[in-house]
């Protein structure tokens, strides 16, 4: 499978994403923010970092880059798009995902490992995560507090669009396990069509034991499985 | 000519900066402060003689699309 990893000025998790995809046996290449085309691509990763210096608001400028117009079209055609950290912020600013990410409630930048509970296996991003498995993955953000108005939040719940929530080591959704004050402990969501997802934690930094956790690979394995099913369906 | 845009967090949105400053003001002895909301102020220079109505329309669009995020922020536009 071919992954397009976007590269904005001040992206800093782009190489990590390339490394993770290649480590797990697939191909990945960087696509510059000024490129208006994604080329031959099966899935897109919008990586973490501080695109355009986080000026104005995180992700606010990046959404207008030429490559994001291509990503929008790719997503509208059903292509799989995953936004990680700043990538999640970019996708909400672009309107590809509902809600917004605001300053952490304690105003601190959090760089630590967190635990994640997968709220539903029914998505191309979660299908291969073992049932009941609590994922241990790192976060590194200052503006990761997920916010949406009540109506949007009700829709997210009704459509099972909440994919991951911050929890403690045993899988309980406690307030102390919530690193940033996100509503409903939300760490990641998907769109209504379920082909675009974003999360604040970094699965690409947790794909090998050497890095302290390999739990992030379950998210990538889910994407690989979804792409394989898609290509089988196309051949049939 | 100048356009002034004041951006504030929506009421329902958590404003930890505002809360922290409010607490600091209380510690300093400033009583009667019932809320602090921290936003942004943007000043835009416009060419002299710019049509005010057209500028207002364009800047409202820009404020909605880029300068503010309507999910979490409100804005007020003034042209003078």
In whole angstroms, the N-to-C terminal distance of chain B is 6 Å
- Which sequence of SSEs, written as H and E, runs from N to C of chain B? EHEHE
Helix content percent band of chain A: 10-25%
Radius of gyration of chain A: 16 Å
CATH class (first level) name of chain B:
Alpha Beta
Find the CATH topology of chain A: Rossmann fold
Uncertain parts of chain B: none
Number of domains of chain A: 1
Mean pLDDT of chain B: 95
The global form of chain A is globular
Describe the structure.
The complex is a heterodimer of chains A (236) and B (80). Chain A is of the alpha/beta class and 236 residues long. Chain A has one domain (2-235): Rossmann fold. Chain A has five helices and eleven strands, in the order βαββαβαββββαβββα. Chain A has helices spanning 14-23, 66-76, 86-93, 150-158, 217-235, and strands at residues 2-7, 27-32, 43-46, 80-84, 100-102, 110-118, 135-141, 145-147, 162-167, 186-190, 196-199. In chain A, the strands form two sheets. A nine-stranded mixed beta sheet of chain A has the order 2-1-3-4-11-10-9-6-7, sandwiched between helices. Chain A has a two-stranded antiparallel ribbon with strand order 5-8. Chain A is globular, with a radius of gyration of 16 Å. The two termini of chain A are 18 Å apart. In chain A, 53% of the residues are buried. Chain B has a three-stranded antiparallel beta sheet with strand order 2-1-3, covered by helices on one side. Chain B has helices at 16-27, 52-67, and strands at 2-9, 40-45, 73-79. The model of chain B has no long low-confidence stretch (mean pLDDT 95). Chain B is elongated. Chain B is built from two helices and three strands; from the N terminus they run E-H-E-H-E. Chain B has 80 residues and is α+β, with helices and mostly antiparallel strands. Chains A and B meet through loops of A and helix 1 of B.
């Amino acid at each position: 499978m071919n992954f397009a990893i976007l590269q904005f000025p001040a992206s800093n998790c782009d190489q990590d994403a390339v490394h993770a995809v290649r480590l797990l046996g697939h191909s990945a290449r960087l696509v510059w923010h000024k490129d208006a085309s994604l080329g031959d691509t099966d899935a897109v990763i919008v990586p973490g970092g501080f695109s355009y210096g986080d000026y104005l608001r995180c992700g606010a400028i990046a959404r207008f880059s030429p490559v994001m117009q291509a990503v929008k079209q790719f997503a509208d055609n059903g292509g799989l798009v995953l936004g990680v950290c700043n990538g999640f912020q970019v996708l909400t600013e672009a309107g590809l995902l509902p809600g917004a990410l605001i300053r952490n409630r304690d105003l601190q930048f959090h760089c630590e490992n967190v635990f994640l509970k997968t709220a539903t296996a029914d998505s191309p991003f979660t299908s291969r995560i073992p049932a009941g498995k609590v994922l241990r993955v790192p976060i590194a953000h200052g503006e990761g507090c997920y916010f949406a108005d009540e109506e949007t939040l009700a829709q997210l719940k009704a459509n099972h669009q909440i994919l991951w929530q911050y929890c403690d080591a045993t899988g309980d959704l406690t307030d102390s396990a919530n690193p940033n004050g996100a509503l409903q402990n939300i760490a990641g969501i998907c769109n209504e069509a379920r082909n675009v997802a974003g999360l604040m934690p970094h699965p690409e930094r947790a794909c090998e034991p050497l890095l302290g956790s390999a739990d992030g690979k379950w998210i990538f394995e889910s994407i690989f499985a979804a792409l394989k099913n898609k290509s089988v369906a196309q051949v049939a | 000519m100048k356009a002034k845009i004041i951006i504030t967090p929506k009421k329902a949105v958590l404003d930890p900066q505002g809360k922290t400053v409010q607490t600091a003001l209380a510690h300093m002895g400033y009583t009667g402060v019932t809320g602090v909301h921290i936003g942004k102020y943007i000043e835009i220079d416009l060419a002299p003689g710019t049509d005010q109505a057209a500028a207002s329309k364009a800047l409202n669009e820009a404020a909605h699309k880029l300068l503010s995020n309507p999910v979490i922020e409100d804005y007020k536009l003034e042209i003078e």
